[in-house]
# Entry
Amino acid sequence: MYGEFDYVEFLVKILLLTVIVIVLQVLLRNYLNKVLHIKKKFFSYDHVNKIHQKFDWLIRIASVFIIFYFIYQDDLKETIYAILSLAVIQESVKAFMEWKYIKSRKFHYITLIELGGFILFAILLLLTNGFGLFNI
# Structure
């Protein structure tokens, strides 16, 4: 009925999309650092305070259970939606904590702009089936 699933091809496509996302993330962060005249580290996740750290770990632990639930349901599309939703929640909490507890407002601007870019890219991926790379 369906053809054989090619794991190698799938992994190559995932790797290609991951590289594209990382390159876009680095370019956006570099541009925002220059425009806003601040230096926010690449690929770092520093907690603003202990409250942020507790919320972050709560979201991470809940995410594991939620993702395993959707994987168990064997619905790839719902699993992808859950992962994207959880990433948006985590970044939203980070932006709120930066807004609330860091004196320089520029840090949360970068987080919100990156979150907006992530949401737009995720919508494009979902609407185009990974730019035609996947048949989900």
Residues 7-36 form the longest helix (30 residues). The CA atoms of residues 97 and 103 lie 11 Å apart.
